[in-house]
Amino acid sequence: MAEVPLADRMQRIDASGIRRVFDLAARLENPINLSIGQPDFDVPPPCKERAIQAIRDGANRYTVTQGEAALRQALAERLRAEFGAFDGPVLVTSGVSGGLLLAFLATVNPGDEVLVPDPYFVMYKHLVSVLGGVPVFVDTYPDFRLRPEALEAAVTDRTRMLLLNSPANPTGVVASEEELRGAVEVARRHDLLVVSDEIYNAYTYDGPAPSPWPMYDRVLLLRGFSKTFAMTGWRLGYAVGPAPIISAMTTLQQYTFVCAPSPLQHAALAALETDPSARIETFRARRDLVWEGLRERFGVTRPGGAFYIFPEAPGGSGTAFVERAIAAGVLVIPGGVFSERDTHFRIAYTAERETLERGVAVLNRLAEDG
């Protein structure tokens, strides 16, 4: 059969390293799975009931591209309460991932450079690259803190965007207000757009996570329902920011996703009425368990949010250590999936306490064995 032609852009991306881990682990029976970046609780019952009712009531057709008016109004009210002032617009997206794609489509030209603090969420690098942009990685090792001088040194006359993620995947680090102000000052000096991915904003354990939104008039804020309300498969997020960018993203959504899932937008209204604090407390306890369990044998930064921790790999190779961990029945992800370095590995503490304790015990044993 003749070779099927693919677009040149496919040469700029490769298969997810997470998928390769799953391929390695496929032969394991009942592994200790600390690899999945999604909550292990279910969607809150009121949200399920609202979704079911919306389906029965016939809310199964397209919504307007920007999302149901009631949901957009509710989100605007929450943002107004949080930031003191907010006058829109709001775009409901098909998850934060959908929002990222629309944002990059709307703002990144071929050859444009995007500053990406390293480590980073795996999607950032590949979305920028597939559009012909150039991800410029700004090293934040060893403690994963934003440093304005490092950002400043990475700026060129092709730089157009600074991408921020706090609380962060894969490190769990929460940027301080001082760090964000320093980063925003760099963006302001060079007239950069700041894209702030805040999908984990509810998961903070040592105080609230500051946002760059009030600090600068060129911030595109992306948030969503997937992590806070365990709606990862429901694909619901939202974007707010400069009106011309939201308008462009809305136009692009019209010709791509069309709209976010209609009945689930109704369910999102119910989600906004639920209190996630008990679930967040569960994850705080898990953070403490994993941090306390690993810190004596691993070089590791204490996470302040999200549900990840990013230890250094004994022996210096994240890939080699992860292969040993998988052979011992523990699924974790090599740090090279999320970084230009391969010196760490990611643990997702999205599992019950007993599973986490077993996983920590195995990892410590591997560290002791060298």
Q: What is the first-to-last residue Cα distance? A: 49 Å
> What profile does the largest beta sheet have?
7 strands, mixed
> Count the strands?
12
Q: Characterize the overall form.
A: globular
Task: Give the fraction of residues assigned to helices.
Answer: 25-40%
Percentage beta strand: 5-15%
> Please, what is the average pLDDT?
94
C-alpha-based Rg, rounded: 21 Å
What name goes with the CATH superfamily of the largest domain? Type I PLP-dependent aspartate aminotransferase-like (Major domain)
CATH architecture of the largest domain: 3-Layer(aba) Sandwich
Give helix and strand order, one letter per element, not per position.
HEHHEHEHEHEHEEEHHHEHEEEH
How many H/I helices? 12
- Number of structurally distinct domains: 2
- Placed side by side, the strands forming the largest sheet appear as 2-8-7-6-5-3-4
Low-confidence stretches: none
CATH class of the largest domain: Alpha Beta
Jot down its keywords:
370 residues; alpha/beta; Aspartate Aminotransferase, domain 1; Aspartate Aminotransferase, domain 2; 2 domains; seven-stranded mixed beta sheet; three-stranded antiparallel beta sheet; 12 helices; 12 strands; 14% strand
How would you characterize the overall build of this protein?
With 370 residues, the chain is an alpha/beta fold. It has two domains: 8-42 and 276-369, Aspartate Aminotransferase, domain 1; 61-272, Aspartate Aminotransferase, domain 2 (3-Layer(aba) Sandwich), CATH 3.40.640.10. The chain is built from twelve helices and twelve strands. It has helices at 17-25, 45-56, 69-83, 95-107, 122-130, 148-154, 177-189, 243-254, 262-272, 277-294, 318-327, 353-369; strands at residues 32-33, 90-93, 113-118, 134-139, 159-165, 193-197, 219-224, 237-240, 308-309, 330-331, 333-334, 345-348. Strand 3, helix 5 and strand 4 form a beta-alpha-beta unit. Helix 3 (69-83) packs parallel to helix 9. The model has no long low-confidence stretch (mean pLDDT 94).
